[in-house]
Amino acid sequence: MSSSYNQLLPTAARSLLSSCRSPIRTAPMAPVFLGFHQQVRGAKNNPQAKGKKDLPVKKGRKGPKEFRQKNLKDVEQFALCDAMRYIRAAEVGREPALSKYEIHVRLRTMRDGPVIRNMLRFPHSVQTESRICVICPPGSRHEKEARAAGAVLVGEKDVFEAVKNGKIEFDRCIAHPDSLDALNKAGLGRILGPRGLMPSAKHGTVVEDVAARVEMLRGGTVYRERDAVIRLPIGQLGFSPEQLRDNLRATIDQIKKDAAALNDRINKEIYEVVLSSTHGPGFSLNGEFKTDSSPDSLSLSGA
Amino acid sequence: MVNLFKRMRKLQTILNIRVGTGAAIFPSAPSATKDFPAITRLHLTYARKIYHGHQGARHFWRNCLPRLKYHNPAVQVTVKQTDDQEGPAALTIYFAEQASKAAGLNAATITDKHAPAPTDTEKTTTVDVKNIDYKEIWNKVMMMTGAQEVTPTTEEEAQLKKLEQMKQRAEQDRARVQGIRQAKKDQERMLQEARGEVEKLKEL
């Protein structure tokens, strides 16, 4: 133990230390120091050890090049109707407009390299009614266009007032560049920011062509791959199994197409599809539609 | 990615949706009798907080309704949470054709204004569920509707037992690991103090 100390301290201090070491090392402290001695080597945040030697720091070894995906043979998988039955039970009594089915498509893919990102139109619309707010100068051409495209809330001052009063009756927000200054001055970032509604150029929610954007937002669902998983809402809770199946098929087909459209050398394939919901558990799907024990599809639809 | 084993272990808790208080099958159109007509819908209203006796109703929603919904997927269930703590906590049962006799005995005089209106062929009975435990609510519901309880199979029972054992084991392990972590932390703190003393000595 003393040797380790002598290495770490300058000579002057060493002699000083040796002269008065005994009072420090009282009996109960001894085991603690012992632990210290062991720790010096491995401790990452030990300033003394760092200054002492320029040991070649072991860089974090590069992990596997692909996302590690385990063998699914032990995974309990469900038919669509059975999974829906559980999910509907777990979501019982929830506001049907708020709860959605969602899927998580897990991919076998490289850790780096391109990711899938695209937009998709479902055969059965997921959003009950996407209420879109457009912030643009009142009375302008854009206002008329936005309203025509189906925006619910259009304006500048009155929108700000409503938001400040806590009345947020929209779930998407787009701004026209002309109103950006007014928007920033109004200081709504604190209210809209946490909800992800604050328009910003980075997210593509500050655009010139407001009307086209509104059209787009109303129609499609945007998805992207993150850490080898694509997550997206796929249906309302009231959907029948057939409707959900149609949406699921459309999604999987689209994702397969996206994967094929990427560079030739990049190989992405779907590895697992998990059906979940806003409040419910997730069920790995086995690709079957229903089993013998699953209830008829009529009873699995509706609120 | 979540550990596969952990994930599957967690998924086993869906067993709680299948068995437990409230796992029962309501009489449906084919199995309805004169005494116990088919059930078409349920509606529950209660207040957001638990005081003034709204606890049981909330627990009923949390515990029993998922199981009921699992075993009776066709029965629509709606739940309304109000902000009115003084207001009623009420469970409305919708019978096809006519209400059961037992329902008539239990019917409360309260009205639930949040409950959706019954259709022409439905008869409703409202139960006051204020200030009663969810198990009592369930007993009442069972008595009124003639629901047949689903008894867990031996496998399910074995699994339940296993899960319970795992839970107890987890508690012990948690305490053990907490001890280890605390010991490590204490040691680090003492080291820090000791190092401080060395620095002081250096300055001397």
- The CATH topology name of the largest domain in chain A reads Ribulose 1,5 Bisphosphate Carboxylase/Oxygenase
Q: What's the CATH superfamily of the largest domain in chain B, by name?
A: Glutaredoxin
**Strand count of chain A:** 10
**Biggest protein-protein interface?**
A-B, 39 and 32 residues
Number of domains of chain A: 3
Average pLDDT number of chain B: 87
Assign an overall shape of chain B: elongated
Blueprint of the fold:
The complex is a heterodimer of chains A (303) and B (204).
Chain A: H1 2-8, H2 11-19, H3 21-24, H4 30-42, H5 47-52, E1 77-78, H6 80-90, E2 100-108, E3 117-120, E4 132-135, H7 141-149, E5 153-155, H8 157-164, E6 172-175, H9 180-186, H10 189-192, H11 210-219, E7 221-226, E8 229-236, H12 241-261, E9 269-277, E10 283-285
Parallel strand pairs in A: 1-10, 4-5, 4-6
Antiparallel strand pairs in A: 2-8, 2-9, 3-7, 7-8, 9-10
Helix pairs in contact in A: 7-11
Chain B: H1 4-11, H2 15-18, E1 24-25, E2 39-47, H3 55-71, E3 76-82, E4 90-96, H4 101-106, E5 122-128, H5 134-145, E6 148-149, H6 154-203
Parallel strand pairs in B: 2-3
Antiparallel strand pairs in B: 1-6, 2-4, 4-5
Helix pairs in contact in B: 3-5
Describe the model.
- The complex is a heterodimer of chains A (303) and B (204).
- Chain A is of the alpha/beta class and 303 residues long.
- In chain A, 36% of the residues lie in helices and 17% in strands.
- Chain A folds into three domains: 2-52, no CATH class; 72-122 and 221-300, Ribulose 1,5 Bisphosphate Carboxylase/Oxygenase; 132-218, Ribosomal protein L1/L10, domain II (Rossmann fold, 3-Layer(aba) Sandwich).
- Chain A contains twelve helices and ten strands.
- Chain A has a seven-stranded mixed beta sheet.
- Chain B is of the alpha+beta class.
- Chain B folds into two domains: 20-149, Glutaredoxin (3-Layer(aba) Sandwich); 152-204.
- Helices cover 48% and strands 17% of the residues of chain B.
- Chain A binds chain B through residues 9, 13, 16-17, 20, 24, 29, 32-33, 35-36, 39, 67-70, 74-76, 85-86, 88-90, 92-94, 106, 227-228, 281-283, 295, 298-300, 302-303, and chain B through 1, 4, 7-8, 10-11, 13-14, 17, 44, 61, 65-70, 73-74, 76-79, 187, 190-191, 194, 197-198, 201-202, 204.
